[in-house]
Amino acid sequence: MSGPSSHSSRVVRIPIPVEGRVPTGATNAYIVDDAFLIDPAGRTDDLDAAVDAAEIRHIAVTHSHPDHVGAVAEYAAETGATVWCRRGFESRFAAAAGVEPDRTVVEGTEMPVGDGLRVIDTQGRVPDHVAFETGEGTVCGDLVVAEGSVAVAAPEGDLRGYLVGLRRLHARHPPRLLPGHGRPIDGPRAACRRLLDHRLGREQRVLTAVQEGATDVDGVVDAAYDKDLSGFEDLARATVVAHLEKLDVEGRVALDPGTGVVAPGTYS
Fold first, then answer.
1. Distance CA 226, CA 186 (A)
2. Last residue of a domain, which of 186, 218, 248?
């Protein structure tokens, strides 16, 4: 695993090895303006050294998945930093991070560091997801990756929200994206368009499967994927359910969430 990497005069990226089905096997922690620590997934020598070299006054996460919050409590205790989380999700954050938040953020919150750090609401991947916008790049958590795709899976994933988040990020046109996993992205709009196209393509496959006779979630999964899903069957099913939930809200399919039975909708 590579050590700390500076991507501007303001931002340092520190990859942290994590367990589980995580892209690249690591989560990126970021230190902004030598004061703001984002997504400390765990303790490593590299992150300890970067924190020691800075004056960490604030800690936040893009969302409260285990692979993003693992060392929040320890670094908060050691640095005395103010701990922030998305407003309305304080209990969720505390259960995941092991520490109560001191303050909360919402869309547009200006964090008190350096030349400014603005919070952007990017709910969809999970309900408490946010991004942090600097003039030199946006720390975007699990919203965008440089390679592959982002899992948006039921019951937490909201595809309508996820697509809105991608479109908002595309419209804001940041100079680069600093994702939660993998390398920085120097073509933000192209990355957003690629993921939008991927998601909408999968949606069309799901919709076509229902229109051509699939009557339950498992039947849609079989029709919507043309690759071996060994080891990922549960994720594929949860992703299809998230697509069906979106299409159900839009009236394009009818989904019975209790039985998993599906049928064409009023507007299919």
1. 31
2. 186
Which pLDDT score is estimated for 226? 84
Q: Which regions of the chain are under pLDDT 50?
A: none
Scanning the structure block, which residue is given the tokens 């709910």? Answer: 123
Q: Can you give the pLDDT at residue 229?
A: 85
DSSP element (H, E) containing 141: strand 137-141
pLDDT at 62: 98
SS3 of residue 264 by DSSP: strand
For the entire predicted model, the pTM comes to 0.93
Distance of CA 185 to the CA centre of its chain: 15
Please count the CA atoms within 13 angstroms of the CA of 162 that sit on its side-chain side.
28
Cα distances (angstroms) measured from residue 240 to each of 116, 160, 198, 245: 39, 13, 13, 9
Residue 34 has a pLDDT of 95
The boundaries of the domain holding residue 238 are 197-264
pLDDT at site 106: 97
User: 160 lies in a domain?
Assistant: yes
Strand 103-105 relative to strand 262-264: parallel, antiparallel, unpaired?
unpaired
Residue 100 within a domain: yes
Residues 81 and 56: beta-carbon distance below 8 Å: yes
Q: Using CB atoms within 10 Å of the CB of residue 8, give its burial: 0 to 12 exposed, 13 to 18 middle, 19+ buried.
A: middle
